[in-house]
Design goal:
The structure is a single chain. The model has no long low-confidence stretch (mean pLDDT about 90). The protein has a domain of about 50 residues. It contains three helices and no strands. The chain is about 70% helix and about 0% strand.
């Protein structure tokens, strides 16, 4: 028996719609707020701690904008190909 390769549905994950754009903006906002809240809580309970909470900062500054740029490029390419 031959195994069939499953085609990955790129449109599901990368094709940008208004709904997905709003989710991207909302996710970015939540990541920024969580970063600031967690940093504030850490500073409140341990003022001597000079570190930073980097997880949500990296999500808000690198991952979400990168996803948006890749999705935008993919959407533009698909729109041009469908013409």
């Amino acid at each position: 028996m031959k195994k069939r390769k499953k085609n990955f549905n790129w449109d599901k994950w990368l094709f940008l719609s208004w709904k997905k754009l709003l989710w991207v903006i909302f996710s970015w906002f939540v990541a920024v707020v969580l970063h600031n809240v967690i940093y504030g809580i850490i500073q409140y309970f341990n003022p001597a701690f000079d570190g930073d909470e980097a997880f949500f900062f990296i999500i808000a500054t690198i991952i979400i904008p990168l996803y948006f740029i890749v999705s935008l490029i993919y959407t533009l390419i698909q729109k041009i190909k469908r013409r």
